[in-house]
């Protein structure tokens, strides 16, 4: 009789444990679905390349890193109120924004802050410029999301990909793009047609990182800038395209031109080649990068304000 009762108690305890596990799993799944709905209209905060993900560095990295050109505009992912805007030894220039959905976002290592505590910001507002301040080894944005509020222990941290969409190291990102429309290496062809960014996988030094198990890729990034060109006597679409290192079709598309005819005095919007960048991979040195990008170590150091030859994997360097 006692054995029978004991078996019943053990069975009951096991059933209770299984039920709790099941309910816990359902709760986590419900929270994840809720977060997806709460952030369905969020946008990516900056142009650049993903260089680190949530949970790396033995679980201590509580955000994602987006590396880009120095002073790249940083945008608020959604409307909200600035809860903090200050300089710290770790985050550098940093901005905290509390959103209507009770999530708080963090934008760290900025070169400059454009907003003050208590200020109301709208989605897409430029809250600062990308930099390399605080505990940082290269120009990038460190972005975090926290449920309710940020704390020193970061126990409320949430993986940003749940709010912004899937991301991978080496993936290019366009600011103001919404979830589901993020830029991936598979959409290179589309990006080239848009002439916004040109990503080329050099296929060099690709290997798994021992600690984070991520794939580091040498990536060259070419960004383009908008310019206004006034048509001069004797110029054609072909001569203008050659001058700005672009194509006739691109000029026609940008200016809604259906024919090849242009007139003296016409003002054309041109997307011309701008600065080129290089994402550092493990094993790279300034000497090897200079050879790959057909430049010199001295020029690389001058363009990137480097005072030594030390560089870090996933750091972005301006090459010209």
TrEMBL record:
MF term (GO), any: metalloendopeptidase activity
CDD domains: LysM, M23_peptidase
InterPro entries: Cell_wall_metabolism_enzyme, Dup_hybrid_motif, LysM, LysM_dom_sf, M23ase_b-sheet_dom
Domain spans labelled LysM: 227-270, 276-319
Pfam family, one: LysM
Name of the protein this chain belongs to: Peptidoglycan DD-metalloendopeptidase family protein
């Amino acid at each position: 009789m006692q054995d029978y009762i004991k078996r019943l108690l053990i069975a009951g305890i096991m059933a209770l444990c299984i039920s709790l596990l099941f309910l816990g799993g359902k709760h986590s799944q419900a929270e994840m679905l809720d977060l997806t709905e709460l952030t369905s209209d969020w946008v990516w905060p900056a142009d650049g390349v993903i260089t680190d993900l949530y949970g790396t560095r033995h679980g201590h990295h509580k955000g994602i890193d987006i590396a880009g050109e120095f002073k790249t505009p940083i945008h608020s992912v959604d409307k909200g109120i600035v809860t903090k805007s200050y300089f710290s030894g770790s985050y550098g220039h940093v901005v905290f924004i509390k959103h209507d959905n009770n999530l708080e976002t963090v934008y760290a290592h900025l070169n400059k802050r454009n907003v003050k505590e208590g200020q109301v910001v709208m989605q897409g507002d430029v809250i600062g410029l990308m930099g390399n301040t605080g505990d940082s080894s290269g120009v990038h944005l460190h972005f975090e999301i926290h449920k309710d509020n940020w704390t020193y222990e970061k126990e409320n941290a949430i993986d940003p990909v749940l709010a912004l969409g899937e991301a991978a190291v080496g993936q290019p990102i366009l600011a103001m793009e919404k979830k589901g429309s993020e830029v991936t290496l598979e959409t290179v062809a589309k990006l080239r047609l848009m002439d916004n960014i040109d990503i080329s996988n050099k296929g060099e030094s690709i290997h798994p990182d021992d600690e984070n198990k991520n794939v580091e890729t040498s990536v060259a990034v070419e960004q383009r800038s908008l310019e206004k060109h006034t048509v001069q006597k004797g110029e054609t679409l072909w001569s203008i395209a050659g001058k700005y290192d672009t194509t006739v079709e691109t000029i026609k598309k940008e200016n809604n031109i259906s024919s090849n005819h242009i007139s003296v005095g016409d003002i054309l919007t041109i997307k011309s080649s701008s600065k080129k960048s290089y994402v550092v991979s493990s094993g790279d040195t300034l000497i090897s990068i200079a050879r790959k990008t057909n430049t010199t170590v001295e020029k690389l150091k001058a363009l990137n304000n480097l005072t030594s030859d030390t560089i870090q994997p996933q750091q972005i360097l301006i090459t010209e």
